[in-house]
Input
Amino acid sequence: MIILRGGTLVTDRAFTGDLGIEGEKIALIADTIPAKPHDEIVDCTGCYVFPGGIDPHTHFAMTNALTTTADDYESGTKAALAGGTTTIINFVTPVAGEPDALHRAFERETEKAQNACCDYAFHMEILDDTDAILKEIQAMTELGVCSYKAYLAYAFRLSDDQIYRVMKAVKQAGGVLSAHCENGDLIQALTDELDQRKTLTPADHPSTRPAAVEAEAIHRFATIGRLCDYPIHVVHLSAAVSPFPRLSARRPASPDPMRSL
Output
């Protein structure tokens, strides 16, 4: 057993004590754990001992239509461990139009993750709503994938009717559907308009993505969630005017569905 001795243990409260680890599991927590001859003692006096953190949103070893990320599974998970994160959930990007796209993406990602230094799981991105993709969503559960992501922005965004069909399929599979919520059409229009006036620079980013384009997309995604009786999840929430905190996908139906938003 490894005994972490005399640290401030942080659970639902903070207290001084010992923590014993066997294998990868916490075996014992007590004020004092008597040591046996082969136990390893780690003096944690003056230190906080936290449970391992979970980072549910990483993009390791990712290449898509926009960019290639700097970290792979090895460098990214080493950095995670250095900060106390012991589990990451990485986004998997399938190849649009590829047969068995989700399964093949899962296989490729599993191979990439062989050099991971901490525990990991996958979110599966959904780039289309073909019958084959919707059927694959049901099979992903057997592989341990239970969370998915759709985009309302970028060139690979889904339309509202596509999101509706994907959401129903994810709901049937018992999974979670999250979305990057920005109005992609409006962003493109604002970008094109500004591009006609001058050369775009990073300083123009806020002008092409005002808070309203996020708020509108969140409102729209929540409306689809209500139609599906499904609790949505929004990633990258950043605008104070976004209506998400006031929305619920599980409110009773009303004659005017917008009145309850």
Remarks:
- The mean pLDDT is 90.
- The CA atoms of residues 159 and 177 lie 15 Å apart.
- The chain has two domains: 2-49, 53-246.
- DSSP finds seven helices and eleven strands in the chain.
